[in-house]
Amino acid sequence: MNYDQLQQAAVVFKALADPNRLRILDTLMQGVSCNGELNDRLGLPPNLLSHHLHVLKKAGLIASRRDVVDGRWIYYAVDQITVTQWRGWLNDFLNPARTQPRCLCGPEGDNKTLISTLNYTIPENTADKQ
């Protein structure tokens, strides 16, 4: 993982770190919605809804466009390409197969036992030293 990818991931995770933004994204995952409908469904004050939509849009998770007949209406939708990319990235990032066995770097590492998780029993020769 390069630094730029991790920086962008931090932006996305910060956008998703708010329960109201998760509710908005969950609603938009069900299909396109307009600002009025989102307001009715979620019960958020218009200024707060607008703020959360702005954060999600800035993170690239949603897209919007104005109604061609009445520009006061704004339609919102999940950016399916971006969401698909982040889903794949997260799947790769959290893949347990990435974890490689290593020796511990502290005093327990002196026994050169390779481990890949902290759920293990302490070797008997180490337990005697305590």
Task: Tag the structure with descriptive keywords.
single chain, about 130 residues, alpha+beta, Arc Repressor Mutant, subunit A, 2 domains, three-stranded antiparallel beta sheet, two-stranded antiparallel ribbon, 6 helices, about 50% helix
**Count, helices:** 6
Care to count the β-strands?
5
The CATH superfamily label of the largest domain reads: Winged helix-like DNA-binding domain superfamily/Winged helix DNA-binding domain
Taking all Cα atoms into account, the compactness measure Rg is 23 Å
Which regions contain 5 or more consecutive residues with pLDDT less than 50?
none
Largest sheet: 3 strands, antiparallel
Order of helices and strands: HHEHHEEHEEH
> What is the approximate shape?
elongated
